[in-house]
Structure prediction request, 78 residues.
Amino acid sequence: DFVPAVARIAHSSGPWPPCIWQVETDRGPATVTIDSEDDVRRLDRHRVLISDSSGLRFLIPDVRRLDASSLRHLRRLL
Prediction:
């Protein structure tokens, strides 16, 4: 499976869906379009799976490793 790991959420077009995130992944920069809060879900206590509008999936393997700004964007949707 091609599931890039998100290291940082660099920018969000808005606080609530629909919104567009500019993220940094282990495969390089990417744009993620989030249509609803259901597109961001916890897999367990520290892992989060993001599904964008085009069907691509992105993994945050450990939310504890995100910087404060990235965590702020993510918490709005969890």
